[in-house]
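Action item from last week, closing it out:
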Amino acid sequence: MNVISKKILNPLIQPTLIIGFLFMAHQPTPAYDPPADPNATADVKKVLAYLGHIADQDKVLSGQFRHHYHATGNCVGIFEQTGKWPAILEHYFYCQGADNSDAENEKRRQLFLDYWNEGGLISIWAKLIVRHSGVKEEPGPWSDIWQTGTPKNNKLLAHFETYYVPHMKWLQEKGVVLIFKPYNEELEYFKEIEDEDMKKLWIWTFEYFTQTQGLHNLIWFCAANSGGDKFQDRYPGDAYVDMIGFSDYVTDKSATNPRIASYNTMTQNHPNKVFAVAEEGWTDTGQPEPNTQDAREIIALIKNHMPKSAYWLSWSGGWSPAMQKHSRELYNDPWVIDRSEVNWKDTPE
């Protein structure tokens, strides 16, 4: 018999005290921080709360990078293999072709909107700004990239204003919430930037998108290469982050996977931030050959060693479960949530 039951059976306890005690006992304590953006939309609050709710259950959202209209390692491939759509679609905006045409991004944002309207969640990352924005070619040290008016900052600003902001605003007008990873795997792709300057760049980016551009439909995801101490050294602070996570391109999905230690460290250091596996694959030294990996290893890793994960996001091509063995079993696992099962609208803020 529990303590509450014992108190209820005690005739000396006044009924009003019992009711008051029960009311207090059932008041939920928020486990995760509210959105870092104080002006975040109501739907951002609901989606973030939903991700936290999933992280605390024996459940995990499925995710897949890239959407194409043919059956390879992307969202369509997952559907062709399993009959189910991933809960989360991720892609990016960037310039394409010699003329830097933006037309492809208009098609991509429509795909995002369609996927959202069909019940899915949307994630966008900007890792390729190093390759496509021209920032590298601009004069000046990397240490001033976050300082307004410097050559590198001007180039970065122009890239965002041309290829990201217009499409993100368009999606905001349509009511789409975006999980936003501006500098994922920054230790590799932004390694020229020192720790303190990386923090300042993140903060500048946060303030630029939220305050300057008025984008309040974003969930800010700070996603590293592997986590651990280096993640903490470059972490911009809880006030500018909603989610944390890392990439897992390790073939070994058992208890000896080195990412497990990173997971433990990050979730212990930031218990009030939602955790997710930002990118998932089997190797970062080359694309795995088809039908050589067991997709069930993904859910086994999460169940056994990273249970407080809100979702995993598989990379495309050979890294996708669609190109490997047992994708159907993965998506039929009782832990795994597909697009048809996403119900963030029912989650209280």
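Closing note: The longest strand covers residues 274-281.
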